[in-house]
Design a protein that fits this description.
The protein has about 525 residues and is an alpha+beta fold. It is built from 14 helices and 21 strands. Helix 13 packs antiparallel against helix 14.
Length: about 525
């Protein structure tokens, strides 16, 4: 926060006229969500781009769309007002940005966004149900603290991912936090993943450039040194954990996930609700390790067997455990649950071998008498799915591409929304009437699919493959043509990208309508 000192003075009595920024004025109450995320560093991907993949799961009915917000100048008295009463002074200049959000607005945190400098928020995951009881008592949430929407406040002010994380840390430390969640911030060089432990404590880790991070709805930041170069954290984190008996320094290394999370692992109905999804993505990215699907302990970072591609991440976001005994739409599916597990073991390590040597995982299992079906990575509850692609060596309008799908990943293609477009094509934008928005066509197709998934499994997502692959293949052509135009006219480049993306949007919607009417 470049204006922290003046802001403190403002809060203590400076009489200014309060102007509420309309787009930030309303913020629905946050709810627990079942989202999923994969982060891939630039040296772990085939094209050397940073990739952040995300499924946003709510009820499945919240209308999603994209919009662009221009660079803006603000009055010196303008503030951002949250509906819990918190107000934060607005910056004099906020950067241009593009956001994939729901009708409830981005202030809830259910949004993926990127700004003009190629700094991106890759989505988030709720950690509310995994926060352990001792942590809840020791570090209660702040009713007037910042919400998930603070990510987008910082995004509009940041030129690098590191700057964005530091800014968020200042917000967390000064105002406190009202909701526990995990989310990612990236630019063309770095990816940072942040977790909220409680009302005052948090941690952020930098993902190694040759590694991937897989995230569901449980705490995953493991052993950290809060003072390390690739870590940021709340002041006095370890001292707080020791003082409140959340951590025993005489017998344990400091582990953020064990300190604040782990509650789901102790709930019979939730033992595998997150770990199974992590296992599945891990096994698809690193099949050489042949992990057991009953494993609940995973390395913090993983090195994929092959360089990660857009196609690979799309296939994982669409994964429903097909070909495994956990496929949830088969009548004869058998569901297993671990009979015993330890609660005092180490849940993160650098390699699978280290985990096995430390935890001595119990391998006895029994049939789950509840018959509860597994929740796959791809869900009917998804309201939008995305992959943010950030590329070095490109000018601003070409650097960042938000590959967005509306609705369930299984029944939507990913469309490359270049940051440099002049406007979001209709009916994918905010101003299109709700009943005419593209989301509702995708939602209809999703309803058809989920009326009988096993019957439609041979059709979806395969029916999207030709169009999807063409979008990916044509990216190089679009890049080359756009860069040629950019050397003579930035305005014409934006127009070219707008027309190109509009064509992709129209063709995708036609494809969806054809399948609805069959």
């Amino acid at each position: 926060m470049s204006k922290l000192n003046s802001f403190l003075f403002f809060l203590t009595g400076l009489a200014l006229t309060i102007l509420v920024t309309p787009s930030l004025a309303t913020m629905p109450k946050e709810q627990d969500k079942g989202c999923f995320m994969i982060l891939a560093g630039k040296n772990a991907t085939k094209d050397k781009s940073v990739l952040m993949a995300h499924n946003n799961d709510l009820t499945g009915k919240e209308t999603s769309f994209l919009k662009k917000i221009p660079r803006m100048e603000h009055d010196s008295g303008e503030v951002i007002k949250f509906n819990n009463g918190l107000t934060i002074q607005q910056e004099l200049i906020t950067y241009e940005w593009m956001v994939l959000q729901t009708e409830k607005g981005f202030m809830e945190g259910d949004a993926v966004a990127v700004n003009e400098y190629g700094v991106a928020i890759g989505g988030g995951v709720s950690l509310a149900k995994d926060r352990n009881i001792k942590a809840r008592k020791a570090d209660p949430l702040k009713d007037k603290g910042v919400t998930g929407g603070i990510r987008y406040v910082a995004l509009q002010r940041a030129r690098t991912a590191r700057q964005c994380v530091r800014m968020l840390g200042e917000f967390f430390n000064y105002y406190g936090i009202s909701y526990p969640n995990g989310f990612a911030v990236a630019d063309e060089n770095e990816i940072w993943y942040i977790e909220i432990g409680g009302g005052t404590h948090w941690a952020a880790v930098k993902i190694p450039s040759d590694a991937c991070w897989i995230q569901a709805n449980s705490y995953r930041i493991g052993f950290i040194n809060p003072d390390g170069n690739d870590v940021m954290a709340s002041p006095g984190l370890k001292e707080f954990a020791k003082r409140n008996k959340l951590w025993d320094p005489d017998n344990q290394l400091f582990n953020f996930a064990d300190t604040f999370g782990g509650r789901k692992r102790k709930l019979a109905k939730r033992k595998f609700s997150d770990s199974r999804r992590i296992w599945r993505a891990h096994s698809l990215l690193v099949p050489s390790e042949e992990l057991s699907p009953e494993r609940k302990k995973f390395p913090t970072f993983i090195r994929p067997d092959k360089k990660v591609t857009l196609e690979k991440l799309m296939s994982i976001l669409r994964d429903e455990y097909r070909g495994t005994k956990f496929y949830p739409y088969s009548a004869d599916t058998t569901f297993l649950t671990e009979t015993t597990y330890r609660t005092d073991t180490i849940y993160q390590a650098d390699t699978i071998a280290q985990i096995d040597s430390i935890t001595k995982i119990d391998t006895s299992y029994q049939i789950d008498s509840s018959g509860r079906k597994e929740r796959p990575i791809a869900s009917q509850n998804s309201v939008h799915t995305s992959i943010v692609q950030i590329r070095g060596g490109f000018p601003s309008g070409l650097k960042s591409v938000l590959w967005a799908g509306l609705g369930s990943p299984v029944t939507t293609p990913y469309i490359p929304f270049y940051f440099g477009i002049e406007k979001v094509p209709e009916p994918y934008g905010e101003k299109t009437p709700k009943e005419k928005k593209a989301f509702h066509s995708y939602n209809k197709l999703s309803e058809i699919y989920y009326s009988d998934p096993s019957a439609y499994s041979k059709k979806f997502p395969d029916t999207l493959n030709n169009f999807q692959q063409r979008c990916i293949n044509e990216q190089k052509i679009v890049d080359k043509q756009a860069y040629r135009i950019f050397r003579s006219s930035r305005k014409m480049t934006s127009h070219f990208l707008t027309v190109t993306v509009d064509g992709f949007c129209s063709e995708a919607l036609d494809l969806v309508e054809e399948n609805i009417n069959e």
